[in-house]
Amino acid sequence: MIEANAKAFDKFQTVKPDIVFNVSEGINRISREAQIPAMLDFLNIPYTGSDPLTLAICLDKSRTKEILSYHNIPNPKFRVIRHHDELNNLELDFPLFIKPIGEGSSKGIFDNSLVKDSETLSKLVQKRLNDYQQPIILEEYLPGREFTVAILGNGSDLIVLPIIELNFLELPEEMTPIYSYEAKWILDRIDNPLNIYSCPAKIDKSLESKIRTISKDAYQILNCKDWSRIDVRLDKNGEPNIIEVNPLPGILPDPRDNSCYPKAARTYGIEYNALINQVLLHAAKRYNLL
């Protein structure tokens, strides 16, 4: 194990690994998930998962959405807000959804992140800008069902694992139907788990095909490698939209944890250790190490 800190570069030179299994979230600023892969590229050491460019782009939600929009991949209409005075002439329809531009694991996404009027929006935008010291994204809220899609492999070896649906009816009635920080880290605990996920999702073949297609397209357009998790939500017309691309997905090993990627893999028939090895082997194949 090599900790992803300032000493990592020297340790990589000393250890000289054949390949690195990268799960590093990094430390500082918007490039943090790209830092360890960039070190490894510099040292010409192979590693699992996406390269620094993809990791940096996908952590910056605005850049992700701009690229998806260019390729006509549906995603919620949005605006980036860097200063409070940019709230004029938004040309977005309420309700709006607020989130920081470069966070993960539901950080900055709270039960009050769904905003229905201008006065509340003005107050909350200022608070989020102050709290997170980074731009925020405003998105038109999608009222439909939400899914997450685990993808494994590359090219012709690519597999879309069983689709997971988030069951927001499991949340208290007064809560917003999103997997917020409160839902994820306060209500949904290993000692008192929510029945928040259905896998495989109970959906018809047509919707399943649309979700699989849009997820694979996003994966390939953003040049994801070996594995990623794509979050999808339906708009008011029931059409799938991409809401997040996670090229460094969470992989908690305990089945009691609501960790999506291992859950989808287990449903497909891949147990945890086999999943880790499959990710490793896909990376090894990319680097012609096999």
Please outline the helices and strands.
Elements: H1 8-15, H2 35-42, H3 52-59, H4 61-70, E1 78-81, E2 96-100, E3 114-115, H5 118-132, E4 136-140, E5 146-152, E6 159-160, E7 164-166, H6 181-187, E8 197-198, H7 205-221, E9 227-234, E10 240-246, H8 260-268, H9 272-286
Antiparallel strand pairs: 1-4, 2-3, 2-4, 5-6, 5-7, 5-9, 7-8, 9-10
Question: How would you characterize this protein structure?
Answer:
The protein is an alpha+beta fold and 290 residues long. The protein has two domains: 56-75 and 142-286, D-amino Acid Aminotransferase, Chain A, domain 1 (2-Layer Sandwich); 78-140, Dna Ligase, domain 1, CATH 3.30.1490. It is 33% helix and 16% strand. It is built from nine helices and ten strands. The chain has helices at residues 8-15, 35-42, 52-59, 61-70, 118-132, 181-187, 205-221, 260-268, 272-286; strands at residues 78-81, 96-100, 114-115, 136-140, 146-152, 159-160, 164-166, 197-198, 227-234, 240-246. Strands 5, 6, 7, 8, 9 and 10 form a six-stranded antiparallel beta sheet that branches. β5 (146-152) and β6 form a beta hairpin. The chain is globular. The model has no long low-confidence stretch (mean pLDDT 93).
What separation lies between the terminal Cα atoms? 23 Å
Counting copies of identical and different chains, the oligomeric state is: single chain
Shape: globular
| Corresponding CATH architecture of the largest domain | 2-Layer Sandwich
The largest sheet, given as strand count, sense and whether it forms a barrel, is: 6 strands, antiparallel
Q: What class do helices, strands and sheet pairing give?
A: alpha+beta
